[in-house]
Request: fold
Amino acid sequence: MNSNGRPFSWQSRIRFVDTDASGRIHYSALFRHFEAAEFEFMRSIGHSYGTLEHSPLRYPRVHVEGDFLSALRCDDLVSIQVAVERVGESSFTLAFSVLLAERKAAAGKITVVCMHMETGRSHPLPPSFAERLREQMDLSEAR
Reply:
C-alpha cells in the first residue's frame, strides 16, 4: 500500500524468455516477476534487500505458490500488486495479484523467513522491519 491508499504496484513486461513452447508464460517465470515486485516493494518501504550485505540476517523463501487464471503472453504489460498478508515473529507472507488490462491473470504468495547466517536458523524479524510490514498490512486491511 502506498501513501495514497492504493496497493503497491509494479509494472513488468512478459519477455520471450519467460514463455514456453505454448507461447504462454512458463510457470517458473511468474516467480521471477513476483521477486522483482517484492524487491521494489521492499525498497518502497525503506528495507531494500540490497542493504543487507553487511548484516548477519538473510531472508530465504520457505513457501511459494502461484495460480494462473488466464494466459500471459510475450510482450504483455502486467501490473503486479503486492500486499502484506501476514507478519509473524520471524517470517512474513506477501500476496501478489497480476493484472493484465485490469483483469486478474495470476495470483500467488511467498513466505519469507528471517534467518541468522551463523546459525542457519530462524531469527526474529528486526523490530523496525516488522513494524513497517505491519503498517503495510494495516493499510491493506483498511481498504
Remarks:
- The mean pLDDT is 91.
- The first strand starts at residue 8 and ends at 13.
